[in-house]
Amino acid sequence: MNAIELKNINYQYKEFQLNDISFEVPQGFVIGFIGANGVGKTTIIRLIMDLIEPNNGEILIFNQKMKNNAVAIKDKIGFIYSELYLNDKWTIKKIENYIAPFYSYWNHDVFEHYVGLFDLPFNKKIKTFSTGMKMKLSIAIAFSHQAELFILDEPTSGLDPIIRNEVLDIIQKELIDERKTVFLSTHIISDLEKIADYLVYIKDGEVVLNDFLDHLLTQFKIVKGDSN
């Protein structure tokens, strides 16, 4: 079964457009969704999450349309933004009290485990957190409600190399599970070298590649060298 399936999606807003986007996200794998900044990765994620409407086409999550069963489907999704869109005057404790009722399977013990693992202070305001700490909090939230699909929108953007590698290690360790699917959007190719099984490459509003990484590596070779 596919965790996500896009069929002939077209979308236009002002001068920007997506053209006949079709791809599948197989369940149980880590999918790298790659492309330069501004090519439409975040727009496609917003379409998947039913935050905006396509002009035409169909999007299925676990073989269901979001509009037909939005609450149950979103209950299964752990979403990690590149930024934490929460009140920065709140503490982690207050954030949990706000978020927990939205999820049927929220687990306080699991959340507390990750907050402790990431060495995050429960009673300090979010505005005192570094970018890396905010990202770890986003991960802790996503990991704490028995999600089956994890959608990560540029999770390492703006992080220094040490914290970026730490975040990727966390994702790799915690989410490599045949029951879980990871859809990782990034423009940083090195982010995918350790963890991706499958690649979807978008360029100029169109899908250029869509295949398992092992198969792509047999079809293409990367040549490195100086300009001479």
Q: What is the CATH superfamily label of the domain at 1-76 and 148-158 and 181-228?
A: P-loop containing nucleotide triphosphate hydrolases
Please give the radius of gyration in angstroms.
18 Å
- Would you state the CATH class of the domain at 1-76 and 148-158 and 181-228? Alpha Beta
3D shape: globular
Strand content: 25-35%
What topology, given as strand order, has the largest sheet?
A: 6-7-8-3-9-10
What share of the residues lie within helices?
25-40%
The biggest sheet amounts to:
6 strands, mixed
Instruction: Give the overall pLDDT as a whole number.
Output: 88
**Would you list the SSEs in sequence order as H and E?**
EEEHEEHEHHHEHEEEH
Give me the secondary-structure category: alpha/beta
| Gross CATH architecture of the domain at 1-76 and 148-158 and 181-228 | 3-Layer(aba) Sandwich
Q: What's the N-to-C terminus distance?
A: 47 Å
Low-confidence stretches: none
Number of helices: 7
